[in-house]
Amino acid sequence: MSKKKPFNELDRKTKLIVIVILSFLVLLGLFIILGIFFLGMVGLFQLLGVTYESNRSLVFFGLLVLTLGFLFEVLAKLVKAQIINVKKAHLHVRVGIDILFTWFTVYIVDELIVSVAMHMWSQWIFALLLVAIDYAFDDRKIRNEKLA
What we know:
By secondary structure, the chain is mostly helical. The protein has one domain. Helices cover 78% and strands 3% of the residues. It is built from 5 helices and 2 strands, in the order αβααβαα. A two-stranded antiparallel ribbon has the order 1-2. The longest helix has 37 residues, at 12-48.
């Protein structure tokens, strides 16, 4: 017979242990995801010939791309909504808008961070890769645009 208690009936010490362990697991998962993103970016930048002064500037570049990417993604959704209201936009128009706004994000971040130097073609390849990853991991985009 098990003696399972609800969380609110546990004593303070047990609650603290549970909260600390869960927080640790969440942080560990977050660090693993960010580490994979960072190492992937380092490898891709090596292949594309992107130069950077330090790992700190590369981490800052990645965080700024993610932050500005959220802002520009909202703008891209607004533009796509206006196009869809005017006429039924084709799949390539929607993907083109996503690529354009993603490239604009990468371009702005590249201009803001002087310690990272990207060629124009490497900016486009990086933007294409980010959009491809975005479509690969977003089930709603696949369902809505009938890619699957």
